[in-house]
Write a structure and sequence with these properties.
It contains 14 helices and 16 strands. The chain has 428 residues and is an alpha/beta fold. A hairpin with a 5-residue loop joins β8 and β9. α2 runs antiparallel to α10, α3 packs parallel to α10 and α11 runs parallel beside α14. The chain starts with a helix and ends with a helix. It binds pyridoxal-5'-phosphate (PLP). Pyridoxal-5'-phosphate (PLP) binds next to α4.
Length: 428
């Protein structure tokens, strides 16, 4: 496989864009080599500017559950574009998309749209703090909630990949209210409540963590978080920017019983366009401007083209919820194939599936938190990634990311990928 055009494009990009990319993980730093520059996508495939074709398990990092160029989403977008790109005034599209989402999530009466997952979480935190009148928040090591200042502490994939857990440019004054707990470890959460002087506004968690590899929270752990929050008047926020409409139609709520007080969403709800959202029960949301005093705004929030793409995606998912069983069956088929290929090659591999999400670690033990995840063999991951890419399989370029199945992937494609995997596992 030749990457000549991408190598040249990367050099040119490097001159005018830091690291040649607009989001760090795209740079392939942890696996080496040059990221392929993409020319177009079609169904399950990506095509790069050297004419190479890849089966795409990254799906723009989650949003594209129907693969590239889904015809329903594409026509909804074209239709919206022909009415105007943005108005900065309300449209009924926003109400339609909000109603669809609210009807699926128990305890979420209202939500507001923003333009990214980062913005959704940042706004949700402000609202949680404004609502409770407290400053401290609890987050878990290895969970990623976007790159806003107070959350950029031990933030999983991007940060780990660069060995740079928190970032210069974030004043300690801004993170001093962020208390860190260990994922799936309730004692560490209790400790945060003991340590907090001012009281804890919220616990924020990815109930199905996807940014330290795929590491779902234990059901019991989530129930205990709920109890602790109720006991202290603390809000429980589920960050489902990735798992919402990916793990199941109702995200984590479709899999476990625990209900959060607030939910943040993004990725799939924009169908490939920039969208985020945060929601809660009406009483909490009424604290948000203009109903209440907590300020939050956005020139392009609820953008009509993005809303149309999101609505077209969600409508298809709502109309055919069996999609998730099919996607999960494919993800399971792929992960069992990876496991047997690794077994045959005498390599330790542990895998996880949640709906259309899959994850694997080159490790011989179960991964329940970030510290476990760090025990994986990342050199082996890098060789595996390279071998797969050179064979036309586009996997996330970090050992701490989640993979995604789209409806455009057939069982035959999965089987083809499995036979490539058998060869690559033998070679690494
Ligand atoms: C991707 C992601 C975010 C950030 O979303 P952006 O759209 O990249 O800003 C926040 N939380 C989780 C769980 C995510 O996976």
């Amino acid at each position: 496989m030749s990457y000549d055009n991408s190598i040249k494009a990367f050099e040119e990009a490097y001159r005018v864009i830091p690291g040649g990319v607009d989001s760090p993980v795209r740079a392939f730093s942890s696996v080496g080599g040059t990221p392929p520059f993409i020319e177009r996508g079609e169904g399950a495939y990506l095509f790069d500017i050297d004419g190479n074709r890849y089966i795409d398990f990254v799906q723009s990092w989650g949003p594209l559950i129907f693969g590239h160029r889904d015809s329903d989403i594409e026509s909804a977008v074209i239709d919206a574009v022909q009415r105007g790109l943005s108005f900065g005034a309300p449209t009924t599209l926003e109400t339609d998309l909000a109603s669809s989402i609210v009807s699926l999530f128990d305890g979420i009466d209202k939500l507001r749209f923003v333009s990214s997952g980062t913005e959704a979480v940042m706004s949700a935190l402000r609202l949680a703090r404004g609502y409770t009148g407290r400053d401290d928040i609890v987050k878990f090591t290895g969970c990623y909630h976007g790159h806003s200042d107070s959350l950029l502490v031990q933030a999983g994939s991007g940060a780990v990949t660069f060995g740079n857990p928190s970032s210069p440019g974030v004043p300690a004054d801004l993170t001093k209210h962020t208390l860190l707990a260990q994922y799936n470890n309730i004692e560490s959460v209790r400790k945060c409540f003991e340590d907090s002087v001012d009281g804890i506004a919220c616990i924020i968690i990815e109930p199905i963590a996807g940014n330290m590899g795929l590491v779902p929270a234990d059901e019991k752990f989530l129930r205990e978080l709920r109890e602790i929050c109720d006991e202290h008047g603390t809000l429980l926020i589920f960050d489902e920017v990735m798992s919402g409409f990916r793990a199941s139609l109702r995200g984590s709520q479709g899999i476990v019983d625990t209900k959060p007080d607030m939910v943040t969403l993004g990725k799939v709800i924009g169908g490939g366009m920039p969208v985020g959202a945060f929601g809660a029960r009406a009483e909490i949301m009424s604290h948000l401007s203009p109903e209440g005093p907590v300020y939050q705004a956005g020139t392009l929030s609820g953008n009509p083209v993005a809303m149309a793409a999101g609505m077209a995606s969600l409508q298809k998912l709502i109309d055919t919820p069996s999609i998730y069983d099919e996607l999960e069956a494919k993800a399971t088929r792929l992960m069992s194939g990876f496991e047997s290929a690794a077994n045959e090659a005498g390599i330790a591999l542990t895998t996880t599936v949640r709906g259309s999400m899959f994850g694997f670690f080159f490790s011989d033990k179960e991964v329940g938190n970030f510290e476990d995840a760090l025990q994986n063999d990342s050199d082996r991951f890098a060789s595996f990634h390279r071998g797969m890419l050179d064979s036309g399989v586009y996997l996330a370029c970090s050992a701490y990311e989640t993979g995604f199945i789209s409806t455009a992937m057939s069982d035959e494609m999965i089987d083809e990928v499995i036979s490539i995997t058998q060869r690559v596992m033998r070679e690494i």
